[in-house]
Each structure stands twice: as structure tokens, then as C-alpha cells.
Amino acid sequence: MFLLTGVYGCDNLFSPKLDTRTPTNIITDQKTIDGLFQNFKYAYTFKDTSVYGGLLNEDFIFIYRDYAQGFDVSWDRQTEMRTTNGLFNSAQKLDLIWNNIIFQSGDSLNTSIKRSFNLTITFNPSEIVTLNGFADMSITRPTGDSKWKIKRWRDESF
């Protein structure tokens, strides 16, 4: 018991001391572009539709290329929320990695960003899908002190 007490720093392993350190919040106030992407990753990691919904502007549009049909498909915020909720419910695990920003242009209220990503979707141990690509997004906010929200997202996965 002495070795375990020394290693874990508590008298009883089944009743550890309360952590009184200041907690760090993993959800940001979304007032920075990095905060927007951090909240996006959180929403996918924890399959949190409330956080995900807070990323999307009211007039949000999602666009992707249907290569089999040879044309672009788009939908609105309501369809995006329904689709993402279905993904969150059917996946056992989602691993999203945001890579480098390839392009960024705009001002403090409207910005266009193209960023690469890797997404691994584990539906079950024998069905794992990996998507790599780029998220080409237009983000907006009404004032310089407001939250950034995604207005348009063109998914360029391959």
C-alpha cells in the first residue's frame, strides 16, 4: 500500500482527494478562429450536437462534390444538424485532426479559410473510414467581440 500511496499521492485509492486546481475549459468562447476550430474538434470528439450547432450560422450552407453523379450537393443548417446527429449516433468514435491553414483572407468580421484535415470514423472495429481533405469555409461574426460562426463549408474530402 505504501508504494501505491506514494505513486498516486492519496491515502486511499478508492477515495482520492478532490482536485482543487483551476480547471481548464476545453470549450472556448469562440471569439478567435482557433477557438472555432477547437470547438469543432471538441464537438466531433465528444459527439456533442449542442456545441456543433453553436458553430453554424443561421444561414449556414454545406457543399460537397458527388463524384459519382458529377455535381455539387448542398444543404442548409437544419439538414446539416440532422446529418451530423446521425453521424454522431452511428459512430463509436470520431477522431478529427485539423492540420495547417492553407489559405486565409478576410477581416475581423468575415474570413475565408481553407484548412486540411484528417477524420477517422469508427463505426465498429471492422468498419473504420478515414477521410482526408480540405475544409473550405467562410466564417462570420456581427461584431469584433462576437463568436465566429461558419456560414459556408465546402467539404473537399478525398
Give the secondary structure arrangement, pairings included.
Elements: H1 2-8, H2 33-45, H3 49-53, E1 56-66, E2 71-76, H4 77-90, E3 93-106, E4 110-124, E5 127-140, E6 149-157
Parallel strand pairs: 1-6
Antiparallel strand pairs: 1-2, 3-4, 4-5, 5-6
Overview in brief:
With 158 residues, this protein is of the alpha+beta class. It has helices spanning 2-8, 33-45, 49-53, 77-90; strands at residues 56-66, 71-76, 93-106, 110-124, 127-140, 149-157. Strand 4 (110-124) and strand 5 form a beta hairpin.
Structural overview:
- The chain has 158 residues and is α+β, with helices and mostly antiparallel strands.
- The chain has one domain (27-157): Nuclear Transport Factor 2, Chain: A (Roll), CATH 3.10.450.50.
- It has helices spanning 2-8, 33-45, 49-53, 77-90, and strands spanning 56-66, 71-76, 93-106, 110-124, 127-140, 149-157.
- It is globular.
Keywords:
158 residues; alpha+beta; Nuclear Transport Factor 2, Chain: A; six-stranded mixed sheet; 4 helices; 6 strands; disordered N terminus
Would you state the CATH class? Alpha Beta
Largest sheet strand order? 2-1-6-5-4-3
**How many structural domains in the coordinates?**
1
Tell me what the CATH architecture is. Roll
DSSP helical segment count: 4
Global geometry = globular
Rg (CA only): 20 Å
Please mark out the parts with pLDDT under 50 across 5 or more consecutive residues, or reply none: 1-8
Mean pLDDT: 90
Helical content class: 10-25%
Secondary-structure content class:
alpha+beta
- Rounded to the nearest angstrom, the distance between the terminal CA atoms is 54 Å
Strand content: 35-45%
Q: What series of H and E elements makes up the topology?
A: HHHEEHEEEE
Task: List how many beta strands DSSP finds.
Answer: 6
CATH fold name, please?
A: Nuclear Transport Factor 2, Chain: A
Major β-sheet annotation: 6 strands, mixed
